[in-house]
Specification:
The chain is α/β, with parallel strands linked by helices. It has helices at 7-22, 26-42, 49-64, 71-94, 98-108, 122-130, 141-150, 163-174, 194-199, 225-233, 242-248, 264-270, and strands at residues 137-139, 154-157, 179-183, 207-210, 236-240, 255-260, 277-280, 289-290.
C-alpha cells in the first residue's frame, strides 16, 4: 500500500508525540519535527507509511540514546492483557464457534496501538475488549476457516505488545504445533518483540522468531533472509495490525489480514467505516459483512 498524502500529517503528529514521550527537551522536539518535514519533502510516496515511521523512530532512538523508549508502557500493556485473558479464554472455550470468537478478540486487541493513539488507556482497552463482539465486522470468515483447516504451516505476524496476549487465544485455536510466531527484530513504538512474546508465554507453545527489522510493519525487503524464506514457504500467513496491512497488502500469497480500521486512510482503502474489525484476504473477494451476533462477552471490570 502506497503512502497517502493524508499520511503525512499523521506521521508528523506521531513523530512529535513520540519525541515528547521520549524526551522533555523542546530542542529534541524541534529537531525531530524539522527532520520529518525535510524527509517528507523527499520521500518516495510509492513506499508504505511504515518505511517513513521506521526512519522517524530510528532517529528518535539515536537522538535520545534510548534503545526501547516504550518498554515500560509495553510491560504495562502485557500485564493488563494477561489480567483480562482468563475471562476471555473462558468465553472462547464456551463459544459456538471458538475460532471466530478468538479471531474477533484478537482483532479487538489491535486497539493497543501507540502509533495511532499515544494516549490509549487501560479503560480504553477494557472498553474495546468488552465491546469486541458488538462492533462492526467485515471479513471472509469462511475462507479463513478453510485456509486454517488446510494449512500445514502457519506464519503468524504479531503486531503490538499487550495485543500479543490476545493473539495467543487465536493461536491456541489454530493448533500451536503448526504455528510460527514472528515479532519485530528490534524495538519500534510499542510493537512486540521477543521480550513481549515471552512475557505472555507464547514462547512456551510456539516457535518464536523475529523478522530482523525495526519497521512498524513487515517490509519484506528489510527483513532477514530466514524470515523471508519462511514467509515464502508458509501455507497460511496471518498478519496482524494496520502496519502489516500497509506493508503487505500488495504482496501475493496466502495472506489474511486481521486489524481494526483505525484511520480514514485505511478505512477508505478497505471500503469500510473507521472502527470496523477486518479479516480479509485481498487476493479474493473479502465477502459480505458478517453481523455481530455474539454480544455476551463480559470483560469490562
Amino acid at each position: 500500500m502506497k503512502t497517502s498524502l493524508d499520511c503525512i500529517p499523521c506521521l508528523l503528529r506521531q513523530a512529535l508525540d513520540a519525541a515528547r514521550f521520549i524526551s522533555a527537551d523542546p530542542a529534541v522536539h524541534e529537531q525531530i519535527v524539522r527532520d520529518v518535514l525535510r524527509w517528507t519533502g523527499e520521500m518516495d510516496m510509492s513506499l508504505s507509511a511504515p518505511a517513513m515511521a521506521q526512519r522517524i523512530h530510528r532517529r528518535l532512538r539515536r537522538v535520545t540514546g534510548v534503545d526501547d523508549p516504550y518498554r515500560e508502557k509495553k510491560d504495562r500493556q502485557n500485564s493488563l492483557a494477561l489480567e483480562l485473558i482468563p475471562a476471555i479464554r473462558a468465553e472462547v472455550e464456551t463459544a459456538d464457534d471458538p475460532l471466530l470468537m478468538a479471531a474477533r478478540l484478537a482483532i479487538a486487541g489491535n486497539i493497543i496501538d501507540l502509533g495511532v493513539n499515544g494516549d490509549i488507556s487501560e479503560a480504553d482497552v477494557r472498553h474495546d475488549i468488552g465491546n469486541a463482539l458488538i462492533e462492526p465486522f467485515f471479513g471472509d470468515m469462511d475462507g479463513f476457516q478453510q485456509a486454517a483447516r488446510e494449512a500445514r504451516s502457519i506464519l503468524y505476524l504479531a503486531d503490538n505488545a499487550g495485543e500479543i496476549a490476545f493473539d495467543r487465544l487465536l493461536i491456541e485455536q489454530l493448533s500451536p504445533d503448526r504455528v510460527t510466531l514472528a515479532v519485530r527484530g528490534a524495538p519500534v513504538i510499542n510493537d512486540a518483540t521477543r521480550v513481549d512474546a515471552q512475557a505472555v508465554g507464547l514462547d512456551q507453545i510456539v516457535e518464536v522468531i523475529d523478522n530482523g527489522s525495526d519497521a512498524p510493519g513487515t517490509i519484506l525487503s528489510d527483513c532477514a533472509p530466514d524470515f523471508r524464506r519462511r514467509f515464502a514457504n508458509a501455507d497460511l500467513i496471518i498478519a496482524k495490525g494496520q502496519g502489516n496491512y500497509e506493508a503487505l497488502s500488495d504482496e501475493p500469497g496466502p495472506l489474511f489480514f486481521l486489524f481494526k480500521a483505525k484511520c480514514p486512510v485505511i478505512a477508505e482503502h478497505v471500503g469500510q467505516p473507521v472502527g470496523t474489525q477486518m479479516l480479509i484476504h485481498p487476493g479474493r473477494d473479502a465477502g459480505a459483512a458478517v453481523p455481530a451476533q455474539m454480544d455476551n462477552l463480559q470483560t469490562s471490570r
